Amino acid sequence: MMTHSIFTTKPVARRTWWCFLAAMFLLTTVSCVDEEGFDDTPEGNMEALWQLIDQHYCFLDYKAEAIGLNWDEIHATYRKRLNPKMSKMQLFEVLSEMLSELQDGHVNLYSSADVGRNWHWMEDYPKQLDHELREDYLGTDYRIAAGLKYRILEDNIAYVVYESFSDAIGEGNLDDVLYSLRLCDGLILDIRGNGGGLLTNAERLAARFTNEKRLVGYISHKTGRGHSDFSKPDAEYIEPSNRVRWQKPVVVLTNRECYSAANTFVRDVHNFPLVTTLGDQTGGGSGLPFHSELPNGWSVRFSACIMYDAEMNQIEFGIQPDIPCELNDDDIRQGRDTLIEAARQLLRNL
Known about the structure:
- This protein folds into two domains: about 40-120, Transcription Regulator spoIIAA; about 130-285 and about 305-350, Alpha-Beta Complex (2-enoyl-CoA Hydratase, Chain A, domain 1), CATH 3.90.226.10.
- About 35% of the residues lie in helices and about 20% in strands.
- The protein has helices at about 10-35, 40-55, 60-65, 70-80, 90-100, 120-125, 130-140, 170-180, 200-205, 260-270, 330-335, 340-350; strands spanning about 1-5, 110, 115, 145, 150, 155-160, 185-190, 215-220, 235-240, 245, 250-255, 275-280, 285-295, 300-310, 325.
- It has a seven-stranded mixed sheet with strand order 4-5-6-7-11-12-15. Strands 2, 3, 8, 9, 13 and 14 form a six-stranded antiparallel sheet that branches. It has a two-stranded antiparallel ribbon with strand order 1-10.
- The longest helix is centred in the first third of the chain and has 25 residues, at about 10-35.
- It is elongated.
């Protein structure tokens, strides 16, 4: 059964406004990095980058506690690797490795030749996803609506794959997809491998799975140059969509490649009565990213706002599923996806 509601959705506007204010503050304070007069030399660029992170990155205190990060020691270690005659590529490698110490997929260094990145959050773990198997479940006659691929499995379970929150899903798309699946006994939403995208898409989708306004987390913004200078956490809510909403059980499939907006989506629906998460821990990525620039023109992306769950827990390193589940080699050999089959069994028993 599905229903419409007279409630309206407001969280997108709230988050957008706060992010705008945070961006304005950061634009005025981060520009001070350039005003310090750092030279366009290996040492000048490193000092500018280290100070940028030291004053504006939002997870230094948390990662000192969680992984033993010592940003001052990192400064000393990487400064020893500088050489006034080193090439641009050598400097890029040193600075990229320094940023990798943060273990943050939202931290990047951009040059004209490469992008410095850290994919520790997914590369060091099993994928829990076989793309060919997933295509077998979808078949060749599945439907496509914006970024959603969907079909009805033979046991009358709806199966929906959403591979990127960068793929726009309009309200009309969601109305039509959910309505076409209305006679199904349950829904599997497979977001394994979804590396994120737009928070508005995550919120829009989450709003289809609740009938009540729900507190889903908090957001706090960097307000000064000290490691602990943050605004008072602002509550974030998901309000039920005023359009078609799903009224039956939902299982969300997750893995370590669920990052950024996908991580936030899991946070948002994690405690919804109709939703169960199944699979592996998400990859994390709870810091909203902003950009700055080094003296040599290289661009830097870094996390500047912290997002928490509804209990004020950090979700930067991911969210545990309600039901842990791993791909089984025997299942794979038999053409079965362990996670999908576990979700089907769970929905049949509800």
